[in-house]
Design goal:
20% helix, alpha/beta, Metallo-beta-lactamase, Chain A, single chain, 5 helices, 227 residues
Length: 227
């Protein structure tokens, strides 16, 4: 499978028969001015974890649909309703659900978004989900914005947030979550571009070095990795 990182938590996963975009949010163009929507031709599936705009941008989704009107969108109730208001149809999925696209399987997982005061009054996502994409060779887990929670999930590669700020995993917890809890062979950090949560990759790498954790790969925006 081929993994390509885009700003914040957006990833393109390409298996042998499907192209899947996860969380195409409004920071893609903000933090990647050279982004060309034509690089997303023939996207088969869009997966969205929760309603925050850095994870779902209706205008960007419409641009994807213009390239492929048959693209399928899967997400939770809050996002289905948000997109419906923009005349975009999406399919509802829930925790524990399984989607199959040819030889590629998608498992819908739990996720627990952290809370900060600025989310009070409707900003906090009542629903939040993650996804495990399984092509029969590798299991790639997109955690969404999540803090630690009890689970029995297993994956080979984890796309994990490191921003902390009480919203999602901070670096040390992210490493513990990926390495000890999930038992993954590789972590790809994400959700660190936003200047309002300035942990970034430098702090992450300092902590990883301190505890001798080397099973990670920092991808630049637009950079790909074959796994």
């Amino acid at each position: 499978m081929k993994i390509t990182k885009y700003p914040q938590s957006c990833f393109l996963l390409e298996s042998k028969d499907k192209k899947i975009i996860i969380d195409p949010g409004n920071m893609v163009k903000t933090y990647m001015p050279e982004f060309d929507i034509n690089s997303w031709k023939n996207i088969d599936v869009i997966l969205i974890t929760h309603k925050h705009s850095d994870h779902v941008d209706s205008e960007l989704i419409k641009e994807i649909q213009n390239l492929n009107p048959n693209v399928l969108i899967y997400t939770n109730t809050e996002v289905v309703e948000k997109l419906k208001a923009e005349n975009i149809e999406a399919n509802l999925v829930k925790e524990g659900g399984v989607l199959e696209f040819g030889k590629t399987k998608v498992e819908v997982t739990p996720a627990q978004h952290g809370f900060i005061y600025l989310m009070k009054g409707g900003g906090f996502p009542k629903e939040n989900i993650g996804f495990i994409i399984d092509d029969g060779e590798k299991r790639i887990y997109h955690t969404s914005d999540t803090i630690m929670f009890e689970h029995e999930l297993k994956a080979d590669i984890v796309l994990a947030p490191i921003c902390g700020h009480h919203i999602a995993l901070e670096p040390a917890c992210a490493i513990e979550f990926v390495k000890d809890d999930i038992g993954a062979e590789l972590m790809i950090p994400c959700h660190y571009e936003n200047e309002n949560h300035p942990i970034g990759t430098e702090v992450f790498e300092q902590i990883a070095k301190k505890i001798d954790y080397t099973e990670y790969k920092i991808l630049q925006n637009g950079e790909s990795l074959e796994v």
